[in-house]
Amino acid sequence: MSQEVTTLGDPAAPLLARAQAAIEDRSLNGVKAWKAANPGALAIGHMPIYTPRPLIEAIGALPVAMFGGGDQVDIIRGDSYFQSYICHIPRSTIELALGGDLDALDGVVFPAICDVIRNLSGMWKLLFPEKWSAYLDVPQNFDRNLGGKFYGLELRRLARELHQRGAKELTDDALAQAIADENERRAAIAELDLIRQKEPWRVRASEAYLMVRAGAAIPAREHTKLLREFLGIAGDRKTRAYDNVRVVMIGSFCEQPPIDLLRALEKAGCDIVWDDAQLGMRTIEGSIELRTSEGGRSALDALVDAYCEQGAATASRYIGNEVKGASLIDRVQKTGAEGVIFAAASFCDPALLDQPMLETALNVAGIPHTSFKYAENTAQFQVIREQAGAFSDSVRLFGGGA
Amino acid sequence: MSENVEKDRSQVRQKQMIANHFERLSRAKEEGKKVVYTFVPGNLTELLGALDLLPVLPEINALQSGMRKKSGGYISAAEKAGHSEDVCTYVKCDVGMLKNGNFGPTGTKLPEPDLLLLSYTGCFTFMKWFEILKQEYKCPIVMLQVPYQSEGEITEEMRQYVAEQIRDVVVPALEQTAGKKLDMERLREQLRWSAKAEDDLVKVWESAKKRPSPIDGYFGGVHYVGPIFSSFRGSEEAALYYKELREEIEERVARGEGAMTPDGPQAKEKYRLVVEGPPNWTSFNDFWRMFSREGATVVASTYTRVGGLYDQGYRHSPDKPFESMADYALGCYTNLNLPSRVNLLEKYIKEYDADGFFINSVKSCNSFSVGQLLMLRELEKRTGKPGGFIESDLVDPRYFGKANIENRVQSYLQMLDARMNRPLVPGEGLPVALPVLGRAP
Known about the structure:
The complex is a heterodimer. Chain A contains 14 helices and 10 strands. By secondary structure, chain A is of the alpha/beta class. Chain A starts with a strand and ends with a helix. Chain B folds into 2 domains: 9-183, Rossmann fold, CATH 3.40.50.11890; 188-420, Rossmann fold (3-Layer(aba) Sandwich). At the A-B interface, helix 5, helix 6 and helix 13 of A face helix 6, strand 4, helix 7, helix 14 and helix 15 of B.
């Protein structure tokens, strides 16, 4: 049984409106204000899924998560750079960049996620040769002495190159502080996720999404403050009962689903108790442990180890000799979900190549699932709403869960 | 090739080599031989050879299925099993083949893998592909992560990361599968044979700088790279094949003959082109004829470099085996960043004295395709040579609209013809923006 927040008199409404405004700030006015308040400091954009934001904060720069143009941008020039069979996020990203909306950024990091983002890094070099950009090869070998060692060198390279362009030099103390700030943020997000799972009527998935994504272009401390404020009033919200099914939604880790799509799923009777739409903020599961008692271990080692040992399973992370889909089934069980919705962006290689393997695992475990595709600028949700409604009805009638 | 066109000695040899390999594979299980599935770019064939492991290359199987007109059915089977219409058709063709009994290119059943060796070079989909096969075959897997050349160079850190993975992860896994230790001297011997074959292949590529070119470096070229890209690099028979091929090409040069086409030797070389992107395999000869019958010869191509940039100086070396294999895996064409790819194409256009360049953008391969429209503009700007652009696919026949593509190719060649007598000045761009030539229906 779920309940719905009545908007009238909702104490969280101003915070949600603030978060919505932050997401719609496509010309990065917030970033410009931050730079004005921090003269000489750099703002560094990063594409999904994961870039270690504490590293960027530790050198005095502002990490800015980039998620394309959503449904706000009319794509004209961006389309002329990409064939019809390529996903939407690179088009809107190029559109924004060519239109000057990303001028506040002093550089962009392109983490290894798929061939589209990888090649976009090269396009960036050709189109904007005066701007700093870097491809970040995250490890797929998770042995700290192999992939970890290489990843550590990659992170040092980024810090060194940014230092040469005006950022502060990376120090162990500054990174340790940035990691501590990140841990605070992660703890707040974990609390938000817990409320969503235990009392989904208090914080809907679409609202949690807004609050998490609102941290895309602000320092971790500021984001934590915003989240804490929201958490503080979440319990005071008035609610109304609905009989919803509990679902996990996956596949949306890069190109973002329109917020109205999340709302359409909610209206179709789904409580989304976990999703990967803002996976970058949740990639490290748990705190990044500094373990200073271990001799000779730096804060950068902690960042590296956290990625290797606590990285969330996702389509862009290699599953070696483990069982494919085991982490998804575990997620379903831990969140008490009754089914899974695969929501992938059209032409998203990682999500769509992963999906049949995960479906196989869910079938074996007897967990119901459904799937659809979207683009960041999808505007019609009726079909998806009907499909999700039919799915939630079938789960209610025939049962679900592992 | 048409049935009535006489095959060269090297072609006959290659055909026999491939038949023998699939024959060995068909007997592998009964003879107790171990089978390792792996990919073309960045593969470690010499290691497999040194340990008497038999390689199977799913990409090669997929393209062969495309040429044998089987891929359409296989892709449908995979899509019915839940694989998205949006993703790589090599993967779906392979999955479909598996679901249909796993009969390989020669019609014999392929043995199941004892190990999946994921050489993760230049293509994200490779990782997903072998995760899918792992779930299907329930066999062990070992992965070699090869960093991307994002800054246009191989750094010492990259080389060491790859070499250490080969030494500490890949070799132990292969030894376990083979049931024996790696003989380093045997590996060095394999690497020597590789370098010998690579020397001869480079001479074959560079013969295309002559007028007329004695080879087609794309359509003909994909036949030439067959042995070295697949199961035979590191073997004496591959070295013999390339020696024979080089001698044949030298004979063609001495006779002043043009490139071989599906209809016999090219009578007159009218246009010299550089091609970017993989070919379409389902209508391979039809596609080739669209160029050859108009007198267009491809003098250099990037697809034929996905298995190694030997013409840019790389050679396998017995001196530091693991580092040498690391450099090979790091140096494959699709592991180069976009600016490096543009530089290489520019170099080919100039060094091979091409009249223009052509991009076949395939739906299946984002590794190749993303950024090609920018490459087109950049190359036109730098070289003053006109570029053509079409969209098709690797092995999905639904994405090869023959009449439509032929129309585009002809339009391009007519435009090239009109412009050849009034070349553009590099840097000034084209007087009129070229349209994107064609899109498969």
